[in-house]
Amino acid sequence: MSLFDRPALRTLWCFLSPSLLLPTMAQVPRKKKRKDSALSLGGGGPVGAVKFGEAGIFLVERRMGSSRRRFLTELARKKGFRVEGQMSESVTHVVSENNSGDEVLELLEKQNGICGTEFTAALVDITWFTESMGAGKPLQLEKRHRLQDALNILAENAELSENEGPYLAFTRASSVLKSLPYNVTKMDDLKGIPNLGDHSRKLIEEILEGGTCNEVQDLIQNVRYQTLKKFTSIFGVGVKTADKWFKEGLRTLNELRASTIKFTKQQEAGLLYYEDLILPVTKVEADLIKQIIEEAVHRFLPSAIITLTGGFRRGKEYGHDVDFLITHREEGREEGLISKVISWMTAQGIILYDDITDNSYHKWKYKESETFDRFAKCFSIFKLQKMVHNLEPGRTCSHGSLAANETRGIGLAGHAGSPRHLTATAAKDKDWKAVRVDLVVAPFGQYAYALLGWTGSRLFERDLRRYAKHFEHMILNSHSLFDNKQNTFLLAATEEEIFAHLGLDYIPPQERNA
Ligand code: UTP
Ligand code: MN
Question: Is the pTM of this model over 0.90?
Answer without folding.
Answer: no
